[in-house]
Amino acid sequence: MRIAVDVMGGDHGCAVVIGGVKLALEADPRITTLLLVGQEDKIRPALSAAGLNDPRAQIVNASEVLTMEDSPVEGIRRKKDSSMVRAIELVRDGKADAVISSGNTGALVAGSMKLRRLDGVERPAITVRMPSRTGDFVLLDAGANPVCEPQHLAQFAVMGDVYAREILGITKPRVGVLSNGAEESKGNELTREAARQCALLDLNYIGYVEGFDLFNDAVDVVVTDGFTGNVVLKTAESLVSAMMQMLKTELTATPVRKFGALLSRGAFRSLKRRLDPEVHGGAVLLGLNGNVIKAHGSSRERAIMSAIRVAAEEVQHGLNEIILRQIAAANQRLAAPTAVTVTV
Prior knowledge:
Blueprint: E1 2-6, H1 14-27, E2 33-38, H2 40-50, E3 57-61, H3 72-78, H4 83-92, E4 98-101, H5 105-111, E5 125-131, E6 136-140, H6 150-166, E7 174-178, H7 189-200, E8 204-209, H8 211-214, E9 221-223, H9 226-251, H10 255-263, H11 265-275, E10 283-286, E11 291-294, H12 301-317, H13 319-335
Parallel strand pairs: 1-2, 1-4, 2-3, 4-11, 6-9, 7-8, 7-9
Antiparallel strand pairs: 5-6, 5-10, 10-11
């Protein structure tokens, strides 16, 4: 269980990432090695300040840092000794099983192409875990592929199904294609053909799902193109933030409301935990020869710890090996001539 951590990419600096590393090492005995990739002259003081002297934390020096302002592709090409690039290369070279970065998302996706796609996978997909009414669901693609073909969405459905079964523990995930309505007549050329292909696969495919379904326990895996998925993700994050702020304002508007809020404090804390993205640690880039976790740029210590936990779970479950088998089976089904017409 060897995980490479890009300690330089986040908004809050090296010390916060090191703090998350310390929490992860204290909480997870499965981890044998955490490779801390970044500028050694900054990592060592942060380790000392955090009181972290665990031998499982090892420094891998990288002299450069990819910033949010760097162009993703140009940044990867120009800053070859950046912490992000070096961390990805550790996975590529077999020295780590997973990589975590809270840096530039576009650069991480572009740089992760060094790992190459799993055989049969046409496009990797950013996969996010989101809260529903009583559980969680998986959304993909959340931003890696703004333009998609129907077969890409069909493969996202397969990868999302594997993730929901292995990581969320859902025995038979309900898979749906995101559209502007649940009726068969809705959607566009992309969603209609994607739906037809998904219906041919060995999935619990339930058809189209719409925005109303996402947070209402109606679906477990939501499949869409990266442009739409990214809009859904950021809209949901913004809405949660706005609602929490509005709720706080209303609950402190009068003394009576303040008293009521005090009595309900436990419930509000539970709700905040359910909606807190730091609980899940970030997004997962599925479909590559290696495990890639994208933590949020604003991640604090707990989010980094959660990202490391997610990486460990992926490695432990052998997620990529399962995806490899399921994609091969799916591609075989889609390539076979169909004797009957499947109506979606």
